[in-house]
Amino acid sequence: MTMTAARRKLPARYQHIVMPLVLSIFMTLLISGVSTLRSVGLEQNFLMLWPQAWLLSWMVAFPALLLVLPFVRRIVGMLVENPSGH
């Protein structure tokens, strides 16, 4: 693999899908882990239950993020000053 192939990136037009995808993976992994740990503790079956809880959480969170992110961006735009000062 050449250096240019290793650094290949997706075109910018995919940012609206990739950002919620990555965000939903990390957030649901963390929250499902905390919820599963709180529910069953560090029992032997924790490592079997957590991936199942994560997958279900992610299957809900990713489409939900795709739907609500435009509204969140508008709300944030009303609350936070534009970097250009306008």
Structural descriptors:
74% helix; single chain; 3 helices; mainly alpha; 86 residues
Describe what this molecule looks like in 3D:
With 86 residues, the chain is mainly alpha-helical. The mean pLDDT is 90.
Mean pLDDT: 90
Q: Note the beta-strand portion.
A: under 5%
* Gyration radius, rounded: 18 Å
Name the helix and strand elements from N-terminus to C-terminus, one letter apiece: HHH
Give the overall shape.
extended
Number of strands: 0
N- and C-termini, Cα separation: 45 Å
Main structural class: mainly alpha
The largest sheet, given as strand count, sense and whether it forms a barrel, is: none
Low-confidence stretches: none
Give the count of helical stretches: 3
Q: Could you estimate the helical fraction of the residues in percent?
A: over 70%
Outline the fold blueprint.
Blueprint: H1 3-6, H2 15-40, H3 46-79
Summary of the model, kept short:
The chain has helices at residues 3-6, 15-40, 46-79. With 86 residues, it is an all-alpha fold.
